[in-house]
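To close the chapter, one final illustration. This time we ask the reader to focus less on the individual chains and more on the assembly as a whole: which components sit near each other, and how the overall shape emerges from the parts.
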Amino acid sequence: MKILVAISKTPETTAKISFTPDNKAFNTDGVQYIMNPYDEWYALVRGLELKEANGGSVTVINVGPPANDVIIRKALAIGADDAVRVNAEPLSARFVAEQIANHAKEAGYDLIIFGKETIDYSGALVPGMVAELLDLPFFSFAHYLEVDGKTATVTRDIEGGEEIAEAELPIVVSAIKGMAEQRIPNMRGIMMAKRKPLNVTEPVGTQGDVEIVAYTLPPEKSAVKLVEPENMDELVSLLHEEAKVI
Amino acid sequence: METTMKSSKVDKYQHHDYYLMDELLSEDHLLARDAVRDWVKREVTPIIEQYAEKAECPMHLFKGLAEIGAFGPSIPVEYGGGGMDEMAYGVIMQELERGDSGVRSMASVQSSLVMYPIYKYGTEAHRQKYLPKLGSGELIGCFGLTEPDHGSNPGGMITNIRDDGDAYILNGAKMWITNSPVADIAVVWAKDEAGVVRGMIVEADTEGYSAPEIHGKWSLRASITGELVFEDVRVPKDNVFPEIKGLKGPLSCLSKARYGIAWGAIGAALDCYDSALRYALERHQFGKPIGQFQLQQKKLAEMITEITKAQLLTWRLGQLANEGRVTPAQISMAKRNNVHMALQIAREARQIHGGMGITNEYPIMRHMMNLETVLTYEGTHDIHLLITGMDVTGLNAFK
Ligand SMILES: Cc1cc2nc3c(=O)[nH]c(=O)nc-3n(C[C@H](O)[C@H](O)[C@H](O)COP(=O)(O)OP(=O)(O)OC[C@H]3O[C@@H](n4cnc5c(N)ncnc54)[C@H](O)[C@@H]3O)c2cc1C
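The assembled structure is written out below.
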């Protein structure tokens, strides 16, 4: 089974978020990056588990500049067999999806797994676009994925329950928490990753025509108000007059 | 311990890299460091306070340390090591000690004091027989040099071997031996009939061998320490390291371990600083964060200054070690400086935390108590000063 896992880079979860003076871009000064946790913990690890159970290979793909190589190496250290980096800034979901679809079309995969979204821009757009560009079935926000021969079973949460679907491979899936458990690379994996192929290719098409007008930070959280358990009236009036929720 | 103790403690640690030292590390160093940091956050932080409080060794971490590759990272892959360089070993030790000096000790003893001498001084048969199993954690090792009456002066040791045909008869006792009560093998240093120090591998199930635990430690409480007692233990001659003779054998192992400690101490210091910085920004007194008071800023500013100096010291030491040029005296300087620095920072950080600083809500007291051992073992603070003194004057203060 040939599996493709798309991985992206996001700021480290404790990074301080600020913007450039014109508010049109994220201020990257002093920011440390990590592999997007949904990609790393769920998509990649489930891909590796399926490969370990069924044989085959796991390729990781990233659209990004050379600085992303350290994240790609991490994916190789965790266990991916090889990697592709499309050498371009990932400026729009459409552009990224085109690069991934373009690679997948040529290489041909049985399964393409994504994290449900990146934890920075949270667009959740790329997986669906890739499925559309490749004309493949798409299962979003799945927490279970099993493969038996040529058939995949995918489970996703829906309001008040679960949806269990079956589909013939190839398919595209985006993964949420529960699909797998984080794997920490070990030293031997890190050393082996140095020898695994990381192929750099040039992008196709042109960047999208979406323009960001401005980013703003969410309003500051106000202080917590403590109400004594006896003062139910005060609580009710605060909820009514200040919070305006009742 | 039947079940693993877990707590819901969240490890909020953030790395502090004031001089952008990360740019001096390679991709695999960064990956190694982050992997061990993730492992510590997941496996060590949630449990360590409880094990330290109970003075119990988290035995299950031996397996975890092996899996992550913390046993023998710089031993070649064909012998079950990681095949990495000295800088990688350093960053691994730093991250482990950020978690706990006792956990770091579990890894440094196995790597530098057991796997390294077997790799360096053992025969090919020794390497094949022991190294892969030590690397995978199937075997735990310990290192017996210190004796009840010979600590700083190991050359005075009285543990000895006597020729008895195809074996030596080993007699004597070792003291303060990390991991000895749980070890499967011990690398033991003893004098032969000519009074020459020899190294050997002693299997724990040999008759006459015992390793009683030392209780009552207020430091390194999550690490198990014991004695080694040898009563007419028959050690096959094949188990003796053939070439290495004299104190330079054990001392070369200690150099490796001390090198790791120089890095490790920075980890403990970083954890104390990180906690103190966060606390200083969150804790309010007199209507403002205590971090706004000059006296608290002085503490924090001096901490990060000292940490940064220590980071530069170890980075250069790592480079020299990679080039095979590092001297034992250079390692002594870094071990002494960095451990003392970490202990000072623990004390200052404790004050910043006020009363909370004495509790196990914060890692400070545990680090502080641990560092008292780190200041003493692997050559005391004073002994390392005398090594530097001897190195620069050419005069020996030990005689
Ligand atoms: C928790 C723990 C784990 C340990 N693990 C191991 C292990 O795994 N293997 C092992 O072999 N050892 C181990 N040790 C032993 C450790 O290395 C010794 O404790 C250390 O070398 C000091 O020896 P000592 O305790 O006998 O102190 P001493 O040598 O008696 O020193 C007492 C004091 O006298 C000072 N002093 C000694 N000589 C001089 C001098 N010439 N000039 C000035 N001052 C001097 C010392 O600096 C010290 O302050 C461990 C120790 C501890 C506490």
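The CA atoms of residues 103 and 323 of chain B lie 28 Å apart. The beta strands of chain B are 141-144, 160-164, 167-178, 185-191, 197-203, 209-210, 225-236, 284-285, 288-289. With these observations in hand, you are ready for the problems at the end of the chapter.
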